[in-house]
């Protein structure tokens, strides 16, 4: 059989209806149709070509990004695309650009923190891209500690203006995407100072560049922060540095939904909690969870297809060698990642619902679910991005040597993805926020206030800290109730243990700092419980299509038992399961790998990614890997000449030195 036939053969083995699974993956038939149509539109447009991207210099890459963003906007207008279609188009263009921040943070910041009047003034211009904005919060000296920001916005009652100023080097804005070279405006976070009194950090809309010739306005120094990790990758983005020298803006450019400054300079706080100033971050963290499933599924698609094509060892009587996907070690590294991609997809859908729910409540002045929304978005952003970053690197290794080639698509995917562990909140800092929320929940147990939502299980803490796992045979691990209870017991016991240790400290903040490593682990256990439970909930829905639900059940069990195996120490040390039950879980996991094996190519086909989007020779749909790798090598600029540039200056003199030496 030719390499090109391997995947066709694999596709014949699928034990479910792939077309129906595509709809489950997309979220709905409507979403599937948009995604399918728009991804093909992008793939067939030569302007969106990206196969030479990693070869471009920074300047050429940036110009290429500007060209693509302008072309994307032109197509959006020409084709009258809806908001959802336009977002899908930008996603499939697959090149980080200033537009991500304009649509993803600048507009949401105005929507979430601006008054009705401010929204009416600024949003129409932003929607038409008559102004382009970014989100300027982080500074050279402070990112995680938002309360430590130093940029000031002093109210001047004489002129009814704020004076925005960068008092120190460390107060320079540093990192905002789109700021370096493109944005005309920014939502700038600065300390509000009125009459010498510091009212903390607030958002302000500040114009940075002229709308006529793009030059920085007086008092503004702005530029790019420089090259980042990897070739291509996030270097298409103009992350920027910005300093203000007493820049004046009208009073009505402070975002005033949360608090207001009157003409007289009076500071007024509305009923809305001040944490809403952080609302844009909650919104973006939620979108980052869905992005994690996309990045992970992309890497997994590449590694799975290639693992079915690649053969090593095991030839018998001159027959073909073994497909590397049939090695149990390959399966135990790859299949949990496939299951994780589906798990993150479903938890992302749920988080989107949670965010919509909290937004609706906020509009009705119900702030009760805000702390949970903050904890869930922070924790799930952290857990899913860390797992995805690790998984992309694992996929590279699963592809052996060829995974290290740029044309595998994996090095660039890794480089572009890993900052997700840092931006929108460093993952450890975010887990500590979850830990605080958990400790508060535990401390309130018994006070008559029953925990709700994702912490409802804590309401059964007495049972969960005493229960014994009922597993006696490997197949007992297939019961959703058994899995759930094991994860709940582990999470509850870890949180309660931390709370007990904390209570021994006379100063709780000191205790929190001392125990922070354990607290982070308790937060991870809680977030993993959420992901497992949302996967199980998804399976309670009506899911049409031959064999679709069965495949998802297998993937759900793989995800849960893989986590259990990986964190066996937690489960056993908390007494949530016994060592014997841990061994049975592993036995079941092996069986599940065999069960899912015939369907894995179809399960990655269900992502419905075009070859253009995948950007990987190893992951191409037809599996014609070797021919494509061979052809691609000859396209490298080094192969434009047989004898390289530099031969005469640097190679020949070395080769000839023995002649000179001999003459001496
Ligand atoms: C096609 C693709 C489109 C994609 C579009 C997106 C593209 C993304 C590209 C990436 C761009 C990246 C952008 C950025 O990185 S922007 C900068 C992000 N910065 C951060 O995330 C900073 C992290 N730090 C923080 O969030 C906070 O400062 C921190 C939570 C750490 C604050 O801690 P702390 O408790 O010390 O301080 P506070 O006094 O401010 O908070 C006290 C209480 O407030 C609660 N809290 C905190 N944050 C929130 C929140 N966001 N929402 C609700 N509540 C919050 C906290 O729990 C405390 O509550 P209690 O008093 O009840 O305990
Ligand atoms: C590619 C990229 C794009 C970005 N885009 C934007 C943007 O558009 N707009 C914007 O405003 N910002 C942006 N940022 C900035 C980003 O949000 C911050 O870098 C991020 O929030 C982390 O903050 P930091 O850099 O201050 O890290 P630090 O807080 O300095 O982290 C350094 C280390 O200290 C640890 N640490 C910090 N605090 C604690 C603590 N309390 N307890 C324990 N450990 C701690 C962290 O875990 C980490 O290991 C971007 C960053 C990147 C990399």
TrEMBL record:
Main location: other
InterPro entries xrefs: ACOX_C_alpha1, Acyl-CoA_ox_N, Acyl-CoA_Oxase/DH_mid-dom_sf, Acyl-CoA_oxidase, Acyl-CoA_oxidase_C, AcylCo_DH-like_C, AcylCoA_DH/ox_N_sf, AcylCoA_DH/oxidase_NM_dom_sf
Keywords: FAD, Fatty acid metabolism, Flavoprotein, Lipid metabolism, Oxidoreductase, Peroxisome
Start and end residues of each Acyl-CoA oxidase C-alpha1 domain: 278-439
Keyword Lipid metabolism: yes
Cofactor(s) named in the record: FAD
Positions of the Acyl-coenzyme A oxidase N-terminal domain: 17-132
GO cellular component entries: peroxisome
Biological process according to GO: fatty acid beta-oxidation using acyl-CoA oxidase; lipid homeostasis; long-chain fatty acid metabolic process
Coiled-coil stretches noted in the UniProt entry, renumbered to this chain: none
A GO MF term: acyl-CoA oxidase activity
Subcellular location: Peroxisome
Span of domain Acyl-CoA oxidase C-terminal: 480-656
Catalytic residues identified in the record: 424 (proton acceptor)
Binding-site residues for FAD, renumbered to this chain: 138, 177
Keyword RNA-binding: no
Family from the record: Belongs to the acyl-CoA oxidase family.
Protein name (database record): Acyl-coenzyme A oxidase
Source organism per UniProt: Durio zibethinus (Durian)
Origin organism lineage: Eukaryota, Viridiplantae, Streptophyta, Embryophyta, Tracheophyta
